[in-house]
Amino acid sequence: MIPQISQAPGVVQLVLNFLQALEQQGFTGDTATSYADRLTMSTDNSIYQLLPDAVVFPRSTADVALLARLAAEPRFTSLIFTPRGGGTGTNGQALNQGIIVDMSRYMNRIIEINPEEGWVRVEAGVIKDQLNQALKPYGYFFAPELSTSNRATLGGMINTDASGQGSLV
């Protein structure tokens, strides 16, 4: 049985300062610090459970770059960041007690398909089945075989070096 988080600790001031600075510098995505939002991100497809301090949902690569620039400032270097895709990992890779950077809410677009050269440009939150549906008319598919292909994001697959138990890639 998964242990239950028994208390809802408040968000630490440094995290609140980071989120405030993020918004002041033009972050266009969403931020979440409510217990409900944090609890939703405290689990994945593993047995682990870690309650994060906050969740951010970037809308663009500019938002991601801003997150990285701000995180590199000396006052924020003690913060912990973890990217998150579909939350389908089985080893707790998308969990932390710091700030979760959820790439699936907004950064889920297929930007370009180039069938002549055999490549595609996508954002990290694109789901594997979504990509394969878009590639099907061109006779292409993304090969890794995983049971969570209707939820697993490409960014998450890359981040966790995961491609399904039966995949030979």
UniProtKB/TrEMBL annotation:
Keywords for this protein: FAD, Flavoprotein
Transmembrane segments: none
Keyword Flavoprotein: yes
One Pfam family matching this protein: FAD_binding_4
GO molecular function, one term: FAD binding
Domain of life: Bacteria
Any one GO biological process: lactate catabolic process
Ranges of residues in domain FAD-binding PCMH-type: 48-169
Signal sequence residues: none
Keyword Flavoprotein recorded: yes
Protein name: FAD-binding oxidoreductase
